[in-house]
Amino acid sequence: MLNRILGALARAALVVVMIATPAIMLNTVSSDSEQVVALIALFAAALTFFEYVSAYPGLIEFRDAPPFNRVRFASLFVTVLLLTIICRGIAHPTIISEFVTAVGALIGYALDFPYSPVRLVVLSLPPETPQHQVNLVRVAAGMSYLISLVSLCVFLVALRVGHWPSKHGSFNVWVNLPTFDPTAGGDVVSRLRRDARVNIVIGFLLPFLMPAVIQSASNLFGGVHTENHHSLIWTVAAWAFLPSSLFMRGIAMGRVADMIENRRRQTYASADIEHLVA
């Protein structure tokens, strides 16, 4: 119980650090924005603590099946941190900020080809956006997209090398998939594979659909203000994180479906052997 409490406290503290990083490192955040960030950080920390300190399922999926959530959190944390370093480097350049900006610019310009997600993000900006702001968005999009691809590759390697999730003992569907009801009807394996395909398809389409949604919302509620680096960081981070997160969720659910099917085959084979021996 003590280890569970300490682990929940550590996760809650990491969530607070991640949410507060842009507000702490950027000097352009107002006092009202700081209060909103503090409130959101405390709420997210409380949610994380009570989720991981409880032995019963809540809202977080694959809670007891590492490293699924660890890879996703690390991906989002690194994305927010590097984008904050890039934005801070505009007013306070350092060797680290210049290096991160150069890497983001290299990836951004390499991925800025027709119909690419990065090109669609750039095209979603208002026509009157200054060129230096367009370049900043391109750099941020390139860096975020690179981190999302790397995190996806890391997760695939963890699945292959670590034999996830069977390596961590028995897999409790009730705890790790709280939003999935095995008794809702139909074969569990078929439903898991269907949900896995849906998540992968949505994860593939989301980088292309989100810029269109942002542009439509800009026409209704006003253009995107790229001068606000705080909102730019979280918008670009969400644009890159959500698709990769859905990809990981789809791959994980497909892996769980394969595990259940293999367990069924072993059970049926054991029953047939016992029947023959008897």
UniProtKB/TrEMBL annotation:
<keyword id="KW-0812">Transmembrane</keyword>
<feature type="transmembrane region" description="Helical">
    <location>
        <begin position="73"/>
        <end position="91"/>
    </location>
</feature>
<feature type="transmembrane region" description="Helical">
    <location>
        <begin position="233"/>
        <end position="256"/>
    </location>
</feature>
<feature type="transmembrane region" description="Helical">
    <location>
        <begin position="6"/>
        <end position="29"/>
    </location>
</feature>
<feature type="transmembrane region" description="Helical">
    <location>
        <begin position="136"/>
        <end position="159"/>
    </location>
</feature>
<feature type="transmembrane region" description="Helical">
    <location>
        <begin position="200"/>
        <end position="221"/>
    </location>
</feature>
<protein>
    <submittedName>
        <fullName>Uncharacterized protein</fullName>
    </submittedName>
</protein>
<keyword id="KW-1133">Transmembrane helix</keyword>
<keyword id="KW-0472">Membrane</keyword>
<feature type="transmembrane region" description="Helical">
    <location>
        <begin position="36"/>
        <end position="53"/>
    </location>
</feature>
